[in-house]
Amino acid sequence: MSIFVDGNTKVVYQGLTGNQGSFHGLRNRAYGTKVVAGTSPKKAGTDVDGVPIFATVKDAVAETGATASCIFIPAPGVAAAVMEAAEGGIEFIVVITEGVPAHDEARFYNDLKNNYPDVQLLGPNCPGIITPGECNIGITPGEIALAGGPVGIVSRSGTLTYQALYEMTRQGIGQTTCVGIGGDPVPGTSFIDCLSRFQADPDTKAIIMIGEIGGSAEEEAAEYIKANVTKPIVSYIAGVTAPAGKKMGHAGAIISGGKGTAAAKTEALEDAGARVAANPVEIGPLMAEVVAGL
Amino acid sequence: MDLLEYQGKQLFARYGIPVSPGAAAVTVDEAVAAAEQAGYPVVIKAQVRVGGRGKAGGIKIADNPEQAREYAGDIIGMDIKGHRVEVVWVEHASDIAAEYYASFTLDRAAKKYFGMLSAQGGVEIETIAETDPDAIAKIHIDPVVGLTEEQAKAWIAEAKLDPAANAGALEVLLKLYTAYVDGDCDLAEINPLILTPEGKVHALDAKVTLDENAQYRHPEWAEYEASQDLDEREQLAKSKGLNYIGLDGTVGIIGNGAGLVMSTLDVVNQVGGTPANFLDVGGGAGADLLANAVEVINSDPNVKAIFVNIFGGITKCDEVANGIVEALARVDVRSPIVIRLDGTNAEEGRAIIKAHESDMLISQPTMLDAAKRVVQLAGK
Prior knowledge:
Chain A is an alpha/beta fold. Chain A has 2 domains: 10-122, Rossmann fold (3-Layer(aba) Sandwich); 141-292, Rossmann fold, CATH 3.40.50.261. Chain A has 9 helices and 14 strands. Chain A has helices at residues 19-31, 57-64, 78-87, 102-115, 158-170, 191-200, 217-228, 262-271, 283-292, and strands at residues 10-14, 34-39, 47-48, 51-54, 68-71, 92-95, 120-122, 128-131, 135-138, 150-155, 174-180, 206-212, 233-238, 275-276. Chain A has a 7-stranded mixed sheet with strand order 3-4-2-1-5-6-7, with helices on both faces. Chain A is globular and about 55 Å long. Chain B is an alpha+beta fold. Chain B contains 13 helices and 18 strands. In chain B, the strands form 5 sheets. In chain B, strands 7, 8, 9, 10, 11 and 12 form a 6-stranded antiparallel sheet that branches. Chain B has a 4-stranded antiparallel sheet with strand order 1-6-2-3, covered by helices on one side. Chain B is elongated, with a radius of gyration of 25 Å. The chains are: A alpha/beta, B alpha+beta. Chains A and B meet through helix 4 and helix 5 of A and helix 9 of B.
């Protein structure tokens, strides 16, 4: 089992005709993802290495039965692309693009919530999602993942997600699903969205949760874990040494008014029973211990 | 991007929010001329991105040209908590009947816009929150719906402003909301928002943070670039389009992805080193960008060793390796580089590094090994 996506998920790529879109879209297909369509208003009727291009998401859904979309459109076009996907009937929208204005994110997040409550948005500014051996949507290098579980992974950082996958695979521990929720201020999918699904997924026996400075998503997740999650959790929080008041690369990674520090997040998670690693490499041995005790 | 007070006021003025007539000045003569223009008495205010200006002597009222000259001379060049005053704002002094607080920002937990209004302005909102939390009227605004007049009226009533201020406050809050949204602000704050004895409501201060991700649709922001507090390294990095934050240590850091770079800083710190910077080359970094990154780090005289930490996703390790090799050929790199490559095309990348390995270019298999090695090299 897995969460959000599996081997049957059919995906349309918005921006498949661009450089990044075609590189990663075709890489996802080579991994085994059902890459059924791409969209481009100007290139409808053509194809990218055999993947048909449609003018709109709606056309792509009608022709191919796609239920998920992956957006590789430059930041200025993301808001329109997200709404086009929802209007076109997509249920799961993944936005890889970074640099989307926060006000755009706040608007389309709430627009979806108000008008398309069943649509799940992942991102923006995220690496995507991978259910190893079945479906890889986004930019995660699939070869570092290992199918079969029992570990589910959720992370705000792309590269730390890869690091976690890599550490697990190196230890011979498989993953059910690995979700990169992204580093922006208004992520479509939250830690809690993933934790609740991992808790419900019988094949996921333990969870890795990777956070970073800024906002209070980790603290909210800690509260949720206390009340709802019985599966063991290994965590890591990046940004212990980050200076206050600076956006550390991610638009959402900022300590403001003394809030959002790594220390506060670590404390909240430890208080909720999670084991918090001192560095990303330590996630491996900590989770290996947990898995050995399952 | 944090604006100076006067830049914030000019932004507010563009959205029709009443501010006092005034002008920015960088010399004493300019300040005196601005005072004449505004009409005495005037307030001369240091323009720095740090609180507590008043206590530090950075805000003074002048009643005549002699005083204006004296105070401007005192304030320009003054050091306030490590910030040198380059610019003063000179405006006509306002008569104040009451001081309020108003702001809009994003509530990340609620994923809605968040407004705060208080009848106890003039002190920091954190202080009000501690001493008298009930004095802050809070609202959440659905970004799709926007701030309605009805909602704003109820909000003002809850804040219990002087009834004489209600109509003026409504106008200012609706305009401040528009400035916050259309202006792509992370924060739009007026503190104090004042009521004058004549019953007018206007902004006596302005604190604005802009969302840099929205820069593409705000060509007018170019004018703010020059006044940013950037050191030489940060300026060089900015000119090369790099995401760089200067720190005080001796280990130069280059990585891809904000989380990985933050954690690289942490790991260097854990094994006894001190990071010299944060530098995220982002997704899809190619050879040219990497060479630029090395050049910027190399320009920092404190740097004794460089740690390149890459986990390839959208970034390809072979392109990173080529970039480092190119940088070594193009730049006279003073410090040894320790590099760790994993992920997309890692094998190819490591092969490229291996062919060029030397005392100045060292490959390490893991993040921790690389951190230990680079800290050891920086310590020599």
